[in-house]
């Protein structure tokens, strides 16, 4: 092998590998993040209704159950869950069919003999970012926790935040043992479209979560990326108190364990 071949062969091999690498298809699904606030003393009954009726009926009507969780600390009696649909029109059609299903109407009526189970429902439609990813989790773990994180940016800072996540944060999360469960922004027409990032992480335990974030925040690559992005923006990319974190426990009927 001559010197020219020795130099060009590794480059040619790398280019071939790059060309052969599969391209991840864009995630164009419509996601809906729903939060139910159970009436006092009714959370267990609400979970039972989902376990025995709602989740299966969602599937019957073309609704994809992504994950169901309750907060580790839950004074507001919340059930948080994520659904997906091919698009918004499919979502509306599926929920219309679900609401008209006699089995659902019977189950709802029976469960509410002693009063309604839900005081309030919040719903947000979400669109996956171009860097969104979901790691495969193959087995349930009693210590595993999910983390729902919401970032609120200052004016014009969301594109800068998304760029930092795409080029630095997501990879560094993986480096420090965190797993991914989707990155989203509010869909067009939803509140927060211009300034909000919502995402889920998966941790082996609460202790693992704390250790991973400690290592991440001390990583020189992260420190440099954060400093560079904030210098370019003239300050923090998020508003004061603009980062919210909620530790979540998967329910027994959640597809995401």
Structure overview:
This protein is α+β, with helices and mostly antiparallel strands. The chain has helices at 3-20, 43-60, 88-100, 102-111, 158-175, 206-218, 220-233, and strands at 30-38, 64-71, 78-85, 118-128, 145-153, 179-186, 196-203, 238-250. An eight-stranded antiparallel barrel has the order 1-3-2-8-5-7-6-4, surrounded by four helices. The chain is globular, with a radius of gyration of 22 Å. The model is unreliable at 3-23 (pLDDT under 50). Helix 2 runs antiparallel to helix 4 and helix 5 runs antiparallel to helix 7 (220-233). It contains seven helices and eight strands. The chain has two domains: 27-128, Alpha-Beta Plaits (2-Layer Sandwich), CATH 3.30.70; 129-252, 2-Layer Sandwich (Alpha-Beta Plaits). The termini are far apart.
Mean residue pLDDT: 92
Number of strands: 8
- The proportion of residues in beta strands is 25-35%
Enumerate how many helices there are, as a single number.
Answer: 7
Task: Assign the CATH topology of the largest domain.
Answer: Alpha-Beta Plaits
CATH architecture of the largest domain: 2-Layer Sandwich
- The shape, in one word, is globular
- Spans of at least 5 consecutive residues whose pLDDT stays below 50 are 3-23
Element-level helix/strand string = HEHEEHHEEHEEHHE
The first-to-last residue Cα distance is 53 Å
Structural class: alpha+beta
Q: How is the largest sheet built, in terms of strand order?
A: 1-3-2-8-5-7-6-4
User: At the first level of CATH, what is the class of the largest domain?
Assistant: Alpha Beta
> Which sheet architecture does the biggest sheet show?
8 strands, antiparallel, barrel
Whole-angstrom Rg: 22 Å
Q: Kindly state the percentage of residues in helix.
A: 40-55%
**How many structural domains?**
2
